[in-house]
Amino acid sequence: MKKIIFFIVILLSSYACVNEVALPVIATFSTEIVVNDKTVPVKVKIINSTEGADTYSWTFNGASPATSSNRNPGTITYDKEGTYIVKLEASNRDGSIDVKEKTIKVNSAINIGFETQVVENNFSPVKIKITNTTVGATTYDWFFEGGVPSTSTKQHPEDIAFTTPGTHNIRLKVSNGDEEYTLEKTIEVAPLLSANFEYAVAFEDDDYQVPVKVTLENKSISATNYQWTFEGANITTSSTENPEIIFNTPGTYTMQLKALNSKSEKTISKTITVYENTNLRTFTNIKLGINTAHKNNHIGAYFSTQTRKVYTQSKVNNTIGSKIDIAFFGLNETFNFNKFISPNKVQELAFSAIPNATITKLINKQESCGCSSSVSVTNFNAMTNDAFLTSLNVDETVGGLTEFDNVEKPRIVIFETADKRKGVIKINEFVKDGANSYIVIDIKVQKEAN
Question: What is the model's pTM?
Answer without folding.
Answer: 0.70
